[in-house]
Amino acid sequence: MTATAADPASAATSGSDVLLEVRNLVQEFVLRDFGGAKGGVLQAVADVSFDLHVGETLGIVGETGSGKSTLARSVIQAPPPRRGQVIFQGQDLVGLSRGALKSARRNLQMVFQDPFTSLDPRWTVASIVEEPLVAYSEGSRDGRRGRVSELLDLVGLDPIRYGGRHPHELSGGQCQRVAVARALALSPKLILCDEPVSSLDVLVQAQVLNLFEKLREELGLAYLFIAHDLALVKQVSDRVAVMYLGKLCEIGPVRSIFTAPLHPYTLALLNSIPSPDPTVGRRETASVISGELPSPLDPPSGCRFRTRCPRAADRCAAEVPELRTLASGHQVACHFPLSENGAGLVTVAADVGGTTAATTTVAAGSPASANPDSTG
Amino acid sequence: MAAAAAEGAPASVQLGPSPLLEVSDLRVTFRTRAASIHAVQGISFSVEPGQTLAIIGESGSGKTVSAQAVMGILPRTATVSGSIRFKGDELVGRSEHELRDYRGRNVAMVFQNPERSLNPTMRIGTQIAEAILSHLKVDRKEAHERAVELLRMVRLQAPERRFYEYPHQLSGGMRQRVMIAIALACGPALLIADEATTALDVTTQAQIMDLLMDLQQQTGTALLMISHDLGLAASYAEEVIVMYAGKVVEQAPTKELFADVRMPYTQALLDAIPRIETEPHVLLPVIGGRPPDLAVIPSGCSFAPRCPAVQDDCREQAPPLRQHEPGRWWACWHPYRKGAPE
Fold first, then answer.
1. Interface membership of B338 toward A (CB under 8 Å)
2. Is residue A180 part of a domain?
3. ipTM of predicted assembly, 2 dp
4. Which of A155, B145, B213, B233 qualifies as a cystine partner to A181, CB 3.0-4.6 A?
């Protein structure tokens, strides 16, 4: 269990409205050899828990194979996770009947990476955006048309000019706007974005990011924003979770993750980003992690990052590090985190520890300062 | 306006004694049934031995087509004019046979997708050895030894064993290392990396870039990086060329460029990048519009319709790329100037 729900500090930031609770989520895929014999079990998401509050953006970063996309798909039950709970608006989605899941998913929409393949090339823009309304039998025909115009306006596409076009007549950025309009059609509470801008050029990417920001403010949307680009995640998120090989390494308010990362992997990620400011210079090569991602079929014992970690010790191989709270709202799964100051040496069990940790002074991680600024 | 002084600067041509690669007034046009696409509209640049130069631009800016022209691997539908000189030899107009001889020993390329560039049915060692055998006069045994040596050079663990593995047994980063080994097989004087790390994770990208930089130090190979990522260029290149709509719009030494951008397009690109240093939820300054249609050559500056600093003369006449200050080139009538009076 994570402490986010029990942690008074993080609950206070976004009100007590928890929109999505993910508890001990495990997703596995059975690999088959020739003839259908069981070849191995790939644990893509291993015991991940987090909360997402109403109107909050949680960024999830990780590299290829970290399980971030699988996590998003498990949340929308496509396919349902092997174990664990996905409690959305108070209802556990795991094990729901088809009909119940359909009505629950109204408030839970997804935007994918590739705007071209996620839109049907034979449909017009207007019918793509209308489709969810038809599927949920929303409104009359005229009512739906009006709603489509409204939605296209909202994402910055002229409904008269673009409504009748097909996806191949649009640019990548425009297609992604259509995908966003479709996701918004049913006025969802939460949008899962899986690398929504990574296939776009930088100028178009900035336009779409600003669109997400505008919608968040105007509609009070919550996002689960998945990306491999840390700077991009920082741009949009209130809180950030870092994943490695199916495990949650670190989760916390965006400022403390970026200014005072606790997990060595987070630091390695931050050090790997080439900065557009050449005066920053290239980071020291020593801080870039070496080696290859271990096979997810046979993850390392104990801490999964230990084979590439500069701080690894015997304990890391023997014992799986549990997620524990070190600063207020900031949790890390590491035996030897980078900064033990403040809450450090109090090794508190994650779900009890919130109260003690929250009172210690860690300036960067103070959630009181972390959230209200986001509106201004 | 401060621009007047810049315009008056003499457009002197300052090239080194003998550049490795000299591209001048390169034009590439693709003829389709409907229209002629002017992908590259007269670009000039040179690469000195051992230099690291980055060409930056968005999709459709012509950066990859320029690199393909230098490699001599443009499709048959392309019409090339202008001049590409490598060590003084003209490449434009050469036959495929002559170009094949030139590639490999002189210039090699690493592409974005190592999956697509490697043959999935051949052992990686054999693929490297093949590259060696096709360009150098050595026997199979020597080629094998050199392939293992190259695998060691690109820091693959246990190169003797890796020699016999197939591409699917390697990760994306390892495959890109194999591609680099193939590219370096015949000791090229120029290595072109076309979005070589774009498909890789950031930590792997950092490993590959560090490897490329080390190899460059060891071998003295010049590196031409083609990328959309200004951050990558800022971190690794000595000089940066910015392309927009088939033209070079700004060129400068990296440090000077990023400290003091002149061309509004370059500034727009820089502004649009989310930064680790900025606060969350701050809107990015964006410009509207889209890059122009390359089938039509506009009368004025091709960036004018989107430019925040546009003035009337921008629409009438296209600004030429000129050297306004030593080493600093830009194509703009009204460039930005940091700390300028007024």
1. no
2. no
3. 0.83
4. A155
